[in-house]
Amino acid sequence: MIWLDSVLATPLMGIRFVPDWEKVFSYKENVIPSFVKRDEGITIKLNSEDSLSFALQTPKGWNYHINHNNLSVDFQYYFNQVRKPGELTSLASPEIMIYSEILQKMKVELETLWDAVHKGENQPINFIGILARCVIDKAKLPPGIEDLVKYLQKPWDLGFIKLKTNFTANLAESEESLSRCHHDLWYDNEKNGGEVSLSLDFQRIFKEPVKLGKKKVGSLIEETLQEAAEYFEKIGTGEVIHV
Question: Per the domain annotation, does 242 fall within a domain?
């Protein structure tokens, strides 16, 4: 089990591509009917400031964002209202899933969204991103995150009252692509002393747009997903930061 499965973590996954300006106005009619038919209770959100941008939201927490050059799938937990005759409205807790389970379902959802938008055509890809975000009990930090906090506060004997930091590191480079990760870490002992917020945003950037057949898009997502998962695990277990 990866360490992200032991905390309440959720992912986000996205693809950026080279826009086809002759087809961008058909994205709504490509996507909306099939997703409305598939997901009961789905909500459609149009952007009044950008006619090429729209979003879909399901009651189960799946969110899809589409614009002229980017697709993303997000997952968030929602509390549903439960109404019973003669009783006050109450909130029903959602079913909790582990991070790796959500991630595998998200991969399928992103492939489905890609196919709906592009109808099997080979649209060049220039970026794939995988995000992990979580709020962790400060007393139960994974070793690697605990080491990172210790490393950052080394110059101060009494440590931090508040920490809010973000940094981006290049991780690997090949002839085809560059892999990097944005790190965001935040806590405030005076306001929420028991919580640490962490976000890891892994990005694979292609130096030249990659044009793939329909079946290979899923393989490229899986390849990036595995690379991101390996790095996230190293951050949590302490293989990156050594105090």
Answer: no
